[in-house]
């Protein structure tokens, strides 16, 4: 799950980046509004967290531009502007959610989670439930019936992405683009390794391989 | 209150009236004395011709009636004489049996004395010596026809004077109204300024009014600028404070602090306290009461957006019903009404179980906003707390939420009233009334 964080306050970003990474997001962090305007269109982000008071360009402006260019990525506005008029202007500009500073770190994580699920038309519950599996996003573990299986960070990230895109064919390069940030080297063999580990924990049929096309999440069958 | 137009009218009409009366009186007096002078000259001629009519008769000097003007023979003709020759009075026949009373009062010359009937007589008494005798001649003429003429002239003067006065008064009224029209225009513009249909006064005014209008416009501009500057400064300050607060709050999530829950909670409580304070004071300071219609709340476009913004995942469980029969712009700053409604609805969503209801109506000179929830309501003893005009919510009720405190501040700033009631479902009803200016 790739996330673009646009925040000009370094101290806050220093806290947010590790927090979001811990929660299984591949995070790119930008400070300048002008960079953000370009980079969001060039990379397949799943969600953008946008501060409004940015150097270079105002956040609302950038948001307008993205929406005008048909960029459909979910945007969570993170701002100190906390009046209802600001909130409504933000939503009008195309924000999907609006969180005001200061905020609880958990609240940000929950809002991002809810927003991601909403964009994938998954109902918002405390756990993500798809294809007979229940994924706990706080504890990074999965429930298969009554069996509780702990996952590593990478496995969690991969499984969550599959569960949010169940029944869809996902190519290896698509997975690489959406699971790793710009800093990390994209080795598609690593994905292969993680998929095999998931199969080992949940059964071979949980993820189907179609040669030349990619992978598909099928869930567990009774 | 004094009225310039009344002061001008009273002043001008009053002074015209006084001047008119004085002129009429003076004219009257001049006319009267000129006529008397003229008649006295006549009487003097008269007395000389009487003197000429005296001749020597058998019993000394006598008056030759053949040489006397026939008017003296006709009874009560208005022309009379008494000629006293050596103590012997000869009276004109016209006197009939009337006495020309105080014959000896020679000093009455030029005066008016009551004569026979309604007559008023003007006298001339002269003493002569002729044919060795001392002769006193007293002639009198009836002056009352002239008095009557003078009276007529006076009435005529009065009537025409009144007419002129009325015409002048009308003209003056017209002039006063005309010259005060710019004042009336300015007054109407100030009214429009208040209700927001214009933003500056028209400066195409007479020279006398120009400094006033310019001063008002400059003050308006200054106030607007100052308001704008302080809003920007406040926004910057709030932004500058809130990001560090966000950092602090994230820092409290660090593992080292997780092991010290008491310390962490205390820090979080203080951060929350600062946040609430900033938010409330910001909201309070930003309350503007704008006079610019383009920044007024638009029911048709702003309300749906506001209701949309409530439908985020956290509030999805609550249904929002609306009863708002109003349309178009209402004369309050968009930001303030959004803040007010947003906080009321947010609060209702927080406490409501299934549905909340927003209604907005126009009352007698008020806007009535009512938000109902089906939640637990607030305790009876707090329920009776009603905020009167201009009153700020006290800290005890703020415990119910920062949102309501902000609502209360907005209501206070707009001189409205705020009431908490229990509704039929046992939930809370917040009722706001704002004076519709």
Morphology call of chain A? globular
Choose one word for the global shape of chain B.
rod-shaped
* Count of individual helical segments of chain B: 10
Q: What would you call the quaternary organization? A: heterodimer
Task: Based on the model shown, name its key terms.
heterodimer; A: 5-stranded parallel β-sheet; 4-stranded antiparallel β-sheet; 8 helices; 42% helix; globular; B: 437 residues; alpha+beta; 6-stranded mixed β-sheet; 15 strands; 51% helix
SSE map:
The complex is a heterodimer of chains A (222) and B (437).
Chain A: E1 2-6, H1 10-22, E2 26-30, H2 33-42, E3 47-51, H3 59-68, E4 74-79, H4 84-93, E5 97-100, H5 105-119, E6 128-130, E7 133-136, E8 141-144, E9 147-150, H6 153-164, E10 169-170, H7 172-179, H8 188-202, E11 207-210, E12 214-217
Parallel strand pairs in A: 1-2, 1-3, 3-4, 4-5
Antiparallel strand pairs in A: 6-7, 7-8, 8-9, 10-12, 11-12
Helix pairs in contact in A: 2-3, 6-8
Chain B: H1 4-52, E1 54-57, E2 60-63, E3 79-85, E4 88-91, E5 112-114, E6 120-130, E7 133-142, H2 144-195, H3 210-251, H4 255-258, H5 261-286, E8 296-298, H6 299-310, E9 319-323, E10 329-333, H7 334-351, E11 355-362, E12 366-373, H8 380-383, E13 386-387, H9 395-398, H10 402-413, E14 417-422, E15 428-435
Parallel strand pairs in B: 9-11
Antiparallel strand pairs in B: 1-2, 3-4, 3-7, 5-6, 6-7, 8-10, 11-12, 12-15, 13-14, 14-15
Helix pairs in contact in B: 1-2, 3-5, 5-10, 6-7, 7-10
Commentary on this structure:
The complex is a heterodimer of chains A (222) and B (437). Chain A has helices at residues 10-22, 33-42, 59-68, 84-93, 105-119, 153-164, 172-179, 188-202, and strands at residues 2-6, 26-30, 47-51, 74-79, 97-100, 128-130, 133-136, 141-144, 147-150, 169-170, 207-210, 214-217. With 222 residues, chain A is α/β, with parallel strands linked by helices. Chain A is globular. In chain B, the strands form 4 sheets. Chain B has a 6-stranded mixed β-sheet with strand order 9-11-12-15-14-13. A 5-stranded antiparallel β-sheet of chain B has the order 4-3-7-6-5, with helices on one face. In chain B, strands 1-2 form a two-stranded antiparallel sheet. In chain B, a hairpin with a 5-residue loop joins strand 14 and strand 15 (428-435). In chain B, helix 7 runs antiparallel to helix 10. Classes of the chains: A alpha/beta (222), B alpha+beta (437).
